[in-house]
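## retry 2 of 3
previous attempt timed out at serialization; input unchanged, resubmitting
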Amino acid sequence: MNTEVQPIGSPCTGICTVDEVSGYCLGCARTSAEIAEWSKAGNDRKRAIWAALPPRMEQLGIAVTRLPWLPDEVAAYIADTLLERSGTWVVGCHGATAEFMFGDDEPTDVSVEGELRAVTPRAALRFTPRTDLRALQWRDPHAAGGVRAIFIVIPRPRNVSAPSLLLTDCGPDAAAVQPAHRGETLFDLGLGREHMRFAVRSADPVLNAALRDTVGLPFDALLQRCGKTLLDHSPTRIVETALGRIEVATPIPAPGGKSPDGPHTHLLPGHLALQRATPAGVDLPEAYALCATFYPRNPPEDPACRA
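## retry succeeded, writing output
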């Protein structure tokens, strides 16, 4: 790709407040003059501005910053992580997540043509690139390479339909990553989150009957009525966002038990009640909706530096 003819992504994170002491924006660390000139600046000037930002961000204590990646570069980064079988992808919100990672020597089917897809015996991932993708990084001096995580986000949509607060029978899971599972029944657990949903998928007649008996109930009532049955049958859990989905088929641990090594899910009502997208201690700018989080084993490569 000829990056010279491509525009450079803006550092703006939607937090447009200038610090009176330093004169730097509290979201992107640019000066007012740099912000004003950005739209007409050439790529060389934009790169120079980007290069000046890290020490300013350190001075301001800004932990979450935008990366200068365009949507196709974000998609390329995701594809690289799948091809290299590196790191961990997480979809969901604080308290309700699905985690995808590759096991050592685990059979894997990866495709990055169009859709970004990875399938293992224990889990599946499918992301569909979008034209509005953005990438943010969580800077942490204690992490390898100074980066704890990469957040894939989109501008927060307006006029979003009200999310389900009740268990819903969604019928056959036509969007299943593998065609063999598309006849199995999908049940939305009704967590009431705007930008993600947590569902289970099952072909087991006993579990499906128990879930259908609780259709229309809120999540806490579902757990009281059907929690043990869910635990006993351990259906596939599916977490979806605007970017795609992760499907996890590993056993659900008993209450107080340890999550299995490799792909797994978390569904923690106490954490969900906090209404956070990310763990405590790191906040995303309000302008964005979280689609996925990547925890790298190594610091991320800037796609603009690729040969």
